[in-house]
Amino acid sequence: MMCRFRPSRILAALSIALVPLPLAAADPAPAPEGGVRALIEARQHAVLSSEIAGRIGRMTVEAGQSFKAGQTLVAFDCSHYQAAVDAARANLRAADVTVRQSRRLEQLKSIGGAEVEMAEVKAEAARADLRKAEIEVRRCDVKAPFDGKVVEQRIREHESVPAGTALLEVLSDRDLRVELIVPSSWLVWLKAGQRFELRIDETGETLDGEVTLIGARVDPVSQSLKVTGKLQADKQGNAPNLVAGMSGTARFNAPQEAKGAR
């Protein structure tokens, strides 16, 4: 037997189903008792590239090795560029000779001032060419911009590379920072100077840290933001023995009002 429903009853049922339910009040974010994940990063981190095209003549470091600021890390075979310097220096000497001769001839009324001025202009151009060639020679040696270590060696000796080729990835292992991603709701109490404890996953060591910078933008999807901190030296004044890329868990002591909010 087929059952028939009246249209009025169907509309009544739909109207009941579509009545909006009252929204529950949003609870405050829980206190940060579980901690947040943290990553150890190097403040100074760079990929060194070639400024000239040429053949790699010598490499003084490999991945994992330490270096000092100003140390030559990669040396190009610069015979071609050095020859350009020698040629530019010879052209400058010839231009200077022409200037001296022109000045003598001017004193003898053999030539006019315009000829002397042209000789001087050519000498200045030769001097500029010499400076340019010397700059190219200095670019043959890639020097370390800071004290640090080699992360990755991207080329080998005797390879020929064009200008702009990545040669070495380097970082400073003496100036490390902590990067954390925290809930945006912590902004009501999290400030620069806030202390935290960081437990390093790789070593199990617990270190004291301090917030130095709070991110300028909240991620609208995850409702989180980036926080940067620094680690304190131990009681003996020794810096933490860390390596960039280590990770851990940071725990903060939130104010009592934040802990009590639920």
TrEMBL record:
Residues 237-262 are annotated as: Disordered. The keyword Cytoplasm does not apply. GO terms for molecular function: efflux transmembrane transporter activity. Residues 46-170 form the CzcB-like barrel-sandwich hybrid domain. Residues 1-25 form the signal peptide. It comes from the Bacteria. The keyword Coiled coil applies. GO terms for cellular component: efflux pump complex. Pfam families: BSH_CzcB. Residues 116-143 form a coiled coil. Belongs to the membrane fusion protein (MFP) (TC 8.A.1) family. This is RND family efflux transporter MFP subunit. It comes from Azospirillum brasilense. The lineage of its organism: Bacteria, Pseudomonadati, Pseudomonadota, Alphaproteobacteria, Rhodospirillales.
